[in-house]
Design a protein that fits this description.
By secondary structure, the chain is of the alpha+beta class. It folds into two domains: 85 residues, no CATH class; 119 residues, Jelly Rolls (Sandwich), CATH 2.60.120. Helices cover 28% and strands 25% of the residues. It has five helices and eight strands. The strands form two sheets. Strands 2, 4, 5, 6 and 7 form a five-stranded antiparallel sheet that branches. Strands 1-8-3 form a three-stranded antiparallel sheet, with no helix packed on it. A hairpin with a 2-residue loop joins strand 4 and strand 5. The N and C termini lie far apart (83 Å). About 15% of the residues have low confidence.
Length: 221
């Protein structure tokens, strides 16, 4: 004898629901709603809130472990992508230490055509770790540097360097320098040769600049 819908539901409620069988009474109705939750992960049914939970006000059932693991991995991937994009706008987001790349300069004035010693000293407004030296010497032979000192540590060892070696387009101008705090100073010393580059006027003033660039704590932060 062919089984009735109720008998089918009692044997296999989930299969009965998928096959479209409708039970008699309230027993099969509950199983039919639960079947949607059980198979929803594979068949695209929205299972954010199980049907039985909506009907009875009960706490929603937990998803199977494999599904929970997939959802957690997706959450981690989404969070990672979001954090990457957020850091483009706020690189220091989520960090207790706020660091940016700053430039710190030492300046002195020379009179073009008049040779003489050059030197300058300055202290930063915030803690900085210089990593690159730049210099605005307009040509080779304009000036030489015999010392660059950062936090009382000399970073030029032996002899003097042509200042043009540290022009902004130079390669290999990175130096390992100590961290410099507002309590310490950076300085340089050297010689201006008296050379007047083409396009410049003798007896005019020239602002000679040595720059130190690197990561620093945000000023005022």
């Amino acid at each position: 004898m062919r089984p009735t819908a109720k008998q089918l539901a009692m044997r296999d409620p989930a299969m009965a629901a998928l096959m479209g069988a409708h039970g008699e009474g309230s027993d099969f109705g509950g199983d039919e709603l639960d079947a949607g939750f059980e198979f929803g992960y594979e068949f695209g049914i929205d299972t954010s809130v199980p049907a039985t939970a909506m009907m009875t006000g009960q706490t929603p059932a937990q998803p199977p472990p494999a599904v929970a693991a997939q959802l957690w991995q997706k959450h981690l991937a989404d969070s990672h992508a979001t954090n990457q994009r957020t850091r483009l706008l706020e690189p220091n987001g989520g960090s207790n230490v706020k660091v940016e790349r700053y430039a710190f300069y030492l300046n002195t004035s020379v009179v073009l055509g008049t040779a003489g010693a050059i030197s300058a000293s300055n202290q930063p407004d915030t803690t900085i770790r210089p990593q690159r030296v730049t210099c605005n010497a307009p040509c080779v032979g304009f000036a030489s540097l015999d010392n660059i000192k950062v936090a009382n540590v000399s970073v030029l060892v032996g002899g003097s360097a042509d200042a043009f070696e540290y022009n902004p387009n130079s390669v290999g101008a990175s130096l390992d320098m100590p961290t410099l705090s507002p309590a310490n100073r950076a300085s340089f010393s050297g010689e201006y040769s008296g050379l007047v580059p083409p396009g410049y006027n003798a007896a005019s003033s020239f602002n000679f600049i040595v720059g130190l660039k690197g990561p620093a704590t945000i000023a005022g932060g």
